[in-house]
Design the sequence.
């Protein structure tokens, strides 16, 4: 979840601070690709909600990772963490990362028109 937004921002030639939070990176990456929800746009309301949900997914994955602390040297996973929770988190991360990378690679993506 940290690598994908930094890859997107680097590919788009946009700088970011090394100590920035993951939610800030997620927002910057979505904004960079034109995937940030825009309340005053002609986008359909459910589409805006789905785009906002991508931000919430990424934030939830990051918070759970920090709560479980396995990325920071913990020796065991907390008892409350079940396999289905891990599957949910991995699936959420995959959805967000896939959406970002597909949009970055899309030759017809709206963000490409804004740089022409």
Sequence:
């Amino acid at each position: 979840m940290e690598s994908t937004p930094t890859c997107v921002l680097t590919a788009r030639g946009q700088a970011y601070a090394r100590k920035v939070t993951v939610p800030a990176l997620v927002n910057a990456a979505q904004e960079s690709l034109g995937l940030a929800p825009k309340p005053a746009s002609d986008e359909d309301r459910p589409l805006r909600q789905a785009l906002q949900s991508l931000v919430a997914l990424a934030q939830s994955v990051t918070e759970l990772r920090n709560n479980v602390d396995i990325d920071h040297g913990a020796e065991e996973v907390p008892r409350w963490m079940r396999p289905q929770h891990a599957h949910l988190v991995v699936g959420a991360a995959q959805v967000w990362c896939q959406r970002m990378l597909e949009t970055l690679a899309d030759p017809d993506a709206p963000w490409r028109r804004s740089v022409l």
About this structure: The chain has a mean pLDDT of 82. The chain has one domain: 3-113. The two ends are 29 Å apart (CA to CA). The helical segments are 3-11, 22-32, 45-68, 83-105, 110-113.
